[in-house]
Specification:
single chain; 558 residues; alpha/beta; TIM Barrel; Oligo-1,6-glucosidase, domain 2; Immunoglobulin-like; 3 domains; eight-stranded parallel sheet; five-stranded antiparallel sheet; 16 helices; 20 strands; globular; binds 1-deoxynojirimycin; GH13_cat_dom; hydrolase; O16G_dom_2
Length: 558
């Protein structure tokens, strides 16, 4: 691929680092992370070796859902900084070779958004209400909500309004919390506004957009109940066929920007949680989204057959649409890998999250290191959630009174919520705030566990055996190895419960998920291992990157 073409197609094998701005680094000392903090740590990201940053929402927001309740897309929340700072940050990141991806939340807005405030103030049937899903209730006096649709946040999906005279009024739909009213995507204002927002950020040099809850925007206007076992496209509020036209229009907007050497192609990345891979990849057809998060892989337990099945299904389903796969071990919504992989049930599901699940962190750490090598060697692009490169565990001991996540609050405390993976990063020093905030700052918005003194960036940079050292090494090798990133892979046998595959002329990745050591396949050189080898053997829960022996001897080894 020529250098211009590879600039244009940068996203096919990019390493994208996810920043949760509240918890990355605090520049102004208020205990909350901000853009000044990110700016001051750009060198860290460049040295880590990432190609792009995805920022979770940084817009004006009451933070009822950590910024996924946007009050104004054209204003940066004052807790994070200003629009001028965002523009400077985008440029400063590009200057060190890092592109920026912003988060767009098209399914809903904040209840403080001026459209919703205007809708509440207006009468039933008004144009202001038509941008949302206002509806009379069912039953006597309209006292029953219009549907019983389930919420990913637990709890109800409709809230009743009050009329100006205080009597109960219409209901409005919110698939998430009541502070996040759903927009009506049949309304032309809603479509026009979002295309303007895309242009607003593309004009400021962002290289891409991550689309929140991308499969939920369109609703069946007849508001039927959810069928018990909906077939493809039959759910009233998920994966409706009409969505594809919306993303075709968005693609036209993205493609209207020149793919010059600095920004390359402007991309659309979907947050699409769908169990059916064939429905999933329909969003990735050539005139729709560029990529989407591969949650199937993230959700699988640490088990060779499960992971292999997910990898094969991912690659087979992406091939016909020509889209690259993405590999994602975690994000700001899920249990950290070090914790997850240390549990008897090492898969992930929102429904199964519970407080107090027994966890072997040492085992989890070993597996998370091996998973890092596995995911970085697979074909496509790679996402790293801030703090995973430090091996941070989920902070489960957080005091319940500090939990603000609607997933926790709306479950009546049954679901622990997502704060445990959103704790401010430890940078340096031996005590909180571990360099997250400057000296003399206010306490961090969530407390940091004192034992994270062992996990600071400073400590890990000085330790060649640390998780950070592993991530830096693997990203350096990933960039240099011709077979890695986009392109084919070929499995080869290396023992029961061992995942082994070749990339390019001589690269091989071997991951031992069995409970005993296995001989390393024939090789000329070991490039990197996730843990110490046992002589010529690869121990359990360990991965190795190799330069393979020439083809003939590899076949012999098989
Ligand atoms: C998905 C986001 O990742 C999550 O954090 C948010 O709560 C929901 N969408 C609702 O916007």
């Amino acid at each position: 691929m020529g250098s211009q073409a590879s600039e244009r197609l940068w996203w096919r094998d990019a390493v994208i680092y996810q920043i949760y701005p509240r918890s990355f680094a605090d520049g102004d000392g208020d205990g909350t992370g901000d853009l000044a903090g990110v700016r001051s740590r750009l060198d860290y990201l460049a040295d880590l070796g990432v190609d792009a940053i995805w920022f979770t929402p940084w817009y004006l927001s009451p933070m009822a859902d950590g910024g996924y309740d946007v009050a104004d897309y054209r204003v940066i929340d004052p807790a994070f900084g200003t629009l001028a700072e965002a523009e400077e940050l985008i440029a400063a990141a590009l200057a060190v070779g890092i592109r920026t991806i912003v988060d767009i939340v098209p399914n809903h807005v904040s209840d403080q958004h001026q459209w919703f405030q205007a809708a509440l103030a207006a009468r039933p049937g008004s144009p202001e209400r038509a941008r949302f899903w206002f509806h009379p209730g069912r039953g006597p006096g309209g006292a029953e909500m219009p549907t019983r649709w389930a919420s990913p946040f637990n709890g109800e999906t409709w809230t009743r309004t009050k009329n100006p005279d205080g009597t109960p009024g219409e209901w409005y739909l919110h698939l998430f919390s009541s502070a996040q009213p759903d927009l009506n995507w049949d309304h032309p204002d809603v479509r026009r506004e979002h295309e303007d927002v895309l242009r607003f950020w593309f004009d400021r040099g962002v290289a891409g957009v991550r689309i929140d809850s991308a499969a939920l925007l369109v609703k069946d206007p007849a508001l039927p109940e959810e069928p018990a076992n909906p077939g493809p496209g039959e759910h009233p509020a998920s994966d409706r066929d009409e969505l594809h036209d919306i993303y075709r229009s968005w693609r036209t907007v993205a493609d209207s920007y020149p793919s010059d050497v600095t920004s390359g192609e402007r991309i659309l990345v979907g947050e699409v949680w769908l169990p059916d891979v064939d429905r999933f990849v329909r969003y990735l057809r050539p005139d729709e989204l560029h990529t989407a998060f591969n949650f199937d892989f993230l959700a699988r337990p640490w088990d060779a057959a499960e992971l292999r099945e997910s990898i094969d299904a991912t690659l087979a389903s992406h091939a016909p649409v020509g889209a690259p796969a993405t590999w994602v071990l975690s994000n700001h919504d899920v249990t950290r890998p070090v914790t997850r992989y240390g549990r008897a049930d090492s898969g992930f599901s929102f429904e199964a999250k519970r407080m107090g699940t027994p966890t072997d962190l040492e085992l989890g750490r070993r597996r998370a290191r091996a998973a890092a090598l596995l995911s970085a060697a697979l074909p496509g692009s790679l996402y790293i959630y801030q703090g995973d490169e430090l091996g941070l565990p989920e902070f489960e001991e957080l005091d319940n009174t500090l939990r603000q996540d609607p997933m926790f609050l709306r479950s009546g405390g049954v679901d622990p919520g997502r704060e445990g993976c959103r704790v401010p990063l430890p940078w340096s020093g031996d005590a909180p705030p571990f360099g997250f905030s400057p000296a003399g700052a206010a306490p961090t918005w969530l407390p940091q566990p004192p034992e994270w003194a062992e996990l600071t960036v400073e400590k890990q940079l000085a330790d060649p055996g640390s998780m950070l050292a592993l991530y830096r090494a693997l990203l350096r090798i990933r960039r240099a190895e011709p077979g890695l990133g986009d392109g084919p892979m070929i499995w080869f046998p290396a023992g029961d419960d061992v995942l082994a595959f070749r990339r390019g002329p001589r690269f091989a990745c071997v991951v031992n998920l069995s409970d005993r050591p296995v001989p390393l396949p024939g090789h000329e050189r070991v490039l990197l291992t996730s843990g110490p080898l046992a002589g010529a053997d690869l121990p359990s829960d360990t991965a190795a990157w190799l330069h393979a022996a020439p083809q003939r001897s590899t076949q012999h080894d098989q």
